[in-house]
């Protein structure tokens, strides 16, 4: 099958081809990289003027190995004695590669993806690990190859996931974090990062609406783990003896969440020994919002059976529909039955930055805990997820194990800044710095403008397709978040009466169009079935680089790729 080519094919030379990697192109990129880095390698090496550095490994600036000219072995890098020049040359080459990738990521004439099937990639390159080291030239080639086939998640036409975009300050912060290469468990080895986590989490709690930012929190490895933390702490709050005695010592617990909630609620119940059967799914309305009356009915039923309701997990921004559960009504029910209220705001929490849209989370201030993923709507580089807890000290009591080799009680500073014992992890990555630095660079108003723009683009898409021939909306009404859910109806199905055969054919449309998108590399958007609804497109916008023109392109591309189906 060959789809009809666009009138003006957007791509030039194939990335990685001879045309795209000419010496002139390489020299141009060197000049760009030198401009961005300020010739930092030469400055640090004490050079008064720019020294000739051979690209493709910077081999001219490096000692030669016994293997012969051009074969430089890794031991010439720091911390090897006299390895400074080789190290700076190597790292400048890496920066060249990264800058080229970054600039291409925002270039609409480049592909979002250079798609190859797994067996093709496995056969085309040798990915295996060997006993002997590679040369630095080969290491740089590994870097280029990896990025050649990476998805450009910062591309303005990448709409596939909730986490998109590439923020320059966030990227710089990630580089700094990796260079610092420390752990988050004690103040003594991460003093600035620990303080920044304290400051940032307090600010996030203020935005939730807890007075003075009171409470506790932690950055965790993604929203699924943050949700599991909430379940763990809720269980401990109700039955603290479970920490020592286990599930056998307490009654049968049940949790409640909507049928549109994230799968991590069930996964957390499985991991904590509560069991997926103990997660009761509450019905949603046609827009995907939890129905409070059904929640209360199921709580009463569970109590009548002798079960103990301990957690309600409401969702602020569901994964597929982008729905916001009615938090005020849910909070009233949780208060009535004395149940821990958690809000999974992994996707929708960012709207708290927007004066125009934060009303959608009205009632979140009454929650006992909140998950908020800045790596989604706020565009912070992966990963950056926070769990916020209203009650201070509870997280520490739940998780601490008093490891004496880390958390000595006779240290010479305030031990409250040794935060590691309240985490499930021992080793914990520094996730806060990129959020903190981006917040400093943008201010709250900058995040607000970014988020408002994404929601405006979603409404623009909705308005363009809601009455357009060939499109059917999955639900009526403008989107609550940036999720826009729709079917594309190809010409062959238009006017066909609703039937089992039509449904069967419609189910195959989105997967075929998605596959063609990836093979051409023009754009990426997700699809899925949900309940009794067959495969439909779920468009989400969190990329600040996207524009109205990119939305127009997406519509045209769907129609181009699906017109023959």
Automatic annotation (TrEMBL):
This is Glutamate decarboxylase 2. It comes from the Eukaryota. Homodimer. Belongs to the group II decarboxylase family. Gene3D superfamilies: 3.90.1150.170, Type I PLP-dependent aspartate aminotransferase-like (Major domain) (3.40.640.10). It comes from Serinus canaria (Island canary). The modification N6-(pyridoxal phosphate)lysine is found at residue 376. One of its GO terms (cellular component) is cytosol. Its cofactor is pyridoxal 5'-phosphate. Pfam families: Pyridoxal_deC (PF00282). Its EC number is 4.1.1.15. The gene is GAD2. GO terms for molecular function: glutamate decarboxylase activity; pyridoxal phosphate binding. GO terms for biological process: gamma-aminobutyrate shunt; gamma-aminobutyric acid biosynthetic process. Keywords: Cell membrane, Cell projection, Cytoplasm, Cytoplasmic vesicle, Decarboxylase, Golgi apparatus, Lipoprotein, Lyase, Membrane, Neurotransmitter biosynthesis, Palmitate, Phosphoprotein, Pyridoxal phosphate, Synapse. It is a peripheral membrane protein; Lipid-anchor. Catalyzes the production of GABA. Its main location: cytoplasm.
